[in-house]
Design a protein that fits this description.
- The complex is a heterodimer of chains A (499) and B (46).
- By secondary structure, chain A is mainly α.
- Chain A has a domain at 1-172.
- Chain A contains 22 helices and two strands.
- Chain A starts with 5 loop residues before the first helix and ends with a helix.
- In chain B, 87% of the residues lie in helices and 0% in strands.
- Chain B contains one helix and no strands.
- The radius of gyration of chain B is 20 Å and the shape is rod-shaped.
- The N and C termini of chain B lie far apart (65 Å).
- The relative contact order of chain B is 0.08.
- Classes of the chains: A mainly alpha (499), B mainly alpha (46).
- Chain A binds chain B through residues 188-189, 192-193, 196, 252-253, 256-257, 260, 265, 268-271, 273, 276-277, 282, 286, 289-290, 293-294, 297-298, 301-302, 309, 312-313, 316-317, and chain B through 15-20, 22-24, 26-27, 30-31, 33-35, 37-39, 41-42, 45.
Chain lengths: 499, 46
């Protein structure tokens, strides 16, 4: 283990400073929104936030000036540290707003936004200012894209070490040979969906009777909450507030699209339409969705709460899709899961959240790719058992192109999967130790750890502080897919025990 | 042959829309399968 030297720390501090400045610049969006709507006090809150970010960011860059390039271990540590620093600084406008009962709750909400989880502790959400609302959605949208990558590729052009940061934020695939171009390709896909999604949702909102400006904001915000698979919504009743099948249909298309791998989006943009039925992640998602839909349907049919087939489908499909894509939009009250849906349907939803959607998307969870690979390993083993000893058995999978399943891939998949399952078990245990029933603790724990955001009512501003801390850390670990956080821990250990 | 500005802009709009259409169509297929499953489950548990 090599002990990090002074210049390594300088490098990490310098890049973290750049990201902090980038986040300060992002705050200008909610500042402009607040000023546009005459929310002067909110504007002051964001002014303080921006000045703090820029002061800290520039100080870090000035004090730790370096021309060295990032290497992999630096990149992972920069991502990990940046997310922590940004989470605390991003909480300033929340904390100053008076809508948070503690700084911990403000930090929780920012971590939830950045990690595209969607759980929230903000109080009186229905009367939050336009400026603060905009900040919630900017956080979740930027977090989905990768806040460090955005800061370094769009605000500071030509960053050589950007790929190290790109990997650290859980996106390993290069859509194009150059990582800057890859980030811009992701930006193009997101922008196309932003235009189409916002126009569609806003039009529906106008048809539902909202004034045009408010409808535009709701359309934009629900799009940002959906495409980032974040699950934040402008109202406390989430998408249930709209009571509209059309709005639900549009939002479901948006969050399912957000849960798809950006490499798949890009393949479709290039005209390779067959990819959508061959891709291992799409096939894996469809198969687990169908199985879990049968489980949820069985639970709901036995509970007998939705006699009408269309209402049954509308609720079950929306909620399961929301859980499986780790979005967290909801069209029922939180406690409905416990008092009406029952344990069978809840188990189906928990499994969906744990599995999650595609890698290199905005979604969380174990990810469809890993479930697909594990399934392939099972198939390979069974084929080996029934074949002659001399037979050479190989499994292939399709993801943009054909791959042969390698030992390296299997080992990497199993490591992350075991880490996720361990974290879910710990989350459930923490909930149970704090006095919550097992099913509720498992549901809420899975929701936080997989960055989903659905709640069955466990989460509240007054729940034990230890649980709020554990949930905040779990959201961070889940979004980083452990890699960056483990790198940070390793960095700390190497500082003490390295040579 | 060089592409005209109109052809390029048409392609820039048509390609993303075609991709979005493909994704929405795939979701519609999944929804149809799910609705069929719901019917089967309700029929089995009636």
């Amino acid at each position: 283990m090599i002990r990090p030297r002074l210049e390594d720390h300088v490098l990490v501090a310098s890049y973290t400073g750049r990201v902090v400045v980038g986040v300060g610049m992002l705050m200008s969006i909610p500042l402009a929104t607040a000023l546009l709507f005459g929310e002067w006090e909110v504007g002051v809150d964001f002014g303080i936030g921006i000045l703090t970010c820029i002061a800290i960011g520039l100080s870090l860059q000035t004090a730790f000036r370096t021309r060295r390039e990032l290497r992999r271990r630096h990149g992972l540590v920069v991502v990990s540290v940046s997310w922590l620093v940004v989470t605390v600084l991003g909480a300033i406008p929340f904390w100053l707003s008076g809508h948070m009962s503690s700084l911990l709750n403000a930090v929780f909400d920012v971590m939830s936004g950045l990690t595209t989880t969607g759980l929230y502790l903000i109080e009186d959400l229905d009367h939050v200012s336009y400026g603060l609302s905009m900040w919630r959605f900017v956080l979740t949208y930027a977090g989905g894209m990768g806040i460090v990558v955005i800061a370094l590729t769009f605000l500071f052009r030509g960053t050589v070490g950007a790929y190290q940061l790109y990997v650290g934020e859980g996106k390993e695939e290069r859509l194009l040979p150059n990582v800057i171009h890859t980030a811009r390709a992701i930006g193009s896909v997101s922008l196309a969906w932003l235009v189409v999604g916002t126009i569609t949702l806003s039009t529906i909102a106008v048809a539902l009777g909202q004034p045009p400006v408010r409808a535009l904001l709701h359309g934009l915000w629900v799009f940002m909450g959906g495409f980032s698979t974040g699950g934040f919504a402008p109202q406390s009743f989430n998408t249930f507030w709209y009571h509209s099948p059309a709005f639900e249909a549009a939002s479901i298309a948006i969050f399912v699209a957000g849960s798809l791998n950006f490499a798949l989006h890009w393949a479709l943009w290039r005209g390779e339409r067959a990819e959508i039925r061959r891709n291992i992640e799409v096939v894996s998602f469809a198969m687990t969705f169908v199985v879990l839909f049968a489980v949820v349907s069985t639970g709901l049919a036995r509970a007998g709460i939705y006699p009408d087939a269309v209402v049954f489908f509308r609720k079950a499909f929306y909620l399961l899709a929301s859980a499986h894509t780790t979005t967290g939009f909801g069209t029922i009250y939180s406690r409905t899961f416990v008092v009406q849906w029952g344990p069978v349907a809840m188990l189906g939803v928990i499994a969906a959240m744990v599995i999650g959607a595609s890698a290199c998307s905005t979604a969380g969870g174990i990810k469809g790719f890993r479930i697909g690979v594990i399934t392939k390993v099972f198939v390979e083993d069974i084929r080996r058992m029934v074949s002659p000893d001399s037979a050479v058995i190989t499994e292939r999978y399709h993801h943009i192109r054909k791959y042969v399943l390698s030992e390296h891939t299997v080992r990497s998949v199993l490591t992350i999967t075991v880490a996720f399952l361990t974290m879910h078990s710990i989350m459930t245990l923490v909930g149970v130790m704090n006095g919550y029933p097992v099913i509720e603790a498992a549901f809420e724990g899975a929701s936080a750890a997989s960055n989903t955001g659905l709640s069955c009512g466990v989460l509240s501003p007054t729940m034990p502080g230890s649980m709020r801390v554990v949930y905040t850390v779990a959201m961070w670990l889940g979004r980083m897919e452990f890699l960056s956080v483990f790198a940070l821990v390793g960095w700390g250990i190497a500082m003490v025990r390295g040579r | 042959m060089a592409r005209t500005t109109r052809e390029i802009s048409r392609s820039a709009i048509a390609r993303p829309l075609a991709a979005i259409g493909t994704e929405v169509a795939a979701l519609a297929v999944l929804a149809s399968i799910a609705f069929f499953i719901e019917m089967m489950v309700r029929w089995a548990l009636r």
